[in-house]
Amino acid sequence: MQLQIEMDVQPREGRGKNAARRVRAAGQVPAILYGLGKEPVAISFDAKQITKLLQSPSGHNQIVNVKVSGGETAAAMASDWLVDPVRGNLLHVDMRRTDLTHAVEVSVAVVIVGVSHGVRKEGGHDEVVTREIELRALPLEVPQKIEIDVTEMVLGSAFRVADLPASDTYTVLTRAEQVLVHCVAQKVAEEEKPAEEVVEAVPAGAGKSADGAKDKGKDKGKEG
Prior knowledge:
Blueprint: E1 5-11, H1 17-25, E2 28-35, E3 38-46, H2 47-55, E4 64-68, E5 73-83, E6 90-97, E7 104-113, H3 117-120, E8 124-128, E9 132-137, E10 145-149, E11 158-160, E12 170-172, E13 179-185, H4 206-223
Parallel strand pairs: 1-4, 2-6, 7-10
Antiparallel strand pairs: 1-3, 2-3, 4-5, 5-6, 7-9, 8-13, 9-12, 11-13
């Protein structure tokens, strides 16, 4: 079961770009708390705290107890966020109120564990084909990641969704035949072909003209 994280947030009064800039300048990230039939609430997170959460592998599935100063406390999940494409800093976050008694559908990262027999003994390469799978679970039962033990895989073999062990806490929604990881042969760089010998082109008839000139010269000498 996942541990809940508590975050104290501040309500936001101003709206618009200028107000958002002031919030960011103060080391905060503008956000909105919405859902469950309640009114949306404009809030702001500590920039370092919320950025660290969202950059973690399972951050987008993490239940956060959002405590609004002077207001409500709500369990929520990050549903969307905006990042500056140039600077890479977090610009805005959407937090969805979450009913902990109702299942949610989420994407969870696939992580390989160990090194396959195909790599150790056959010179292969373990390759993750599908980096996330979709599943349904209660919010606090969502796993941080799906681990796949590849130690017994041989060259040419594949691990599919159908090969995952059954779980009592979640239901996998990704199709059963989807390949998650396979062991493939190492790619060998194509050997560089030797450069072909370059033969300088000689204009047609050039040799004959030269020879002809010499012959004519000799003939003239004989004639003199």
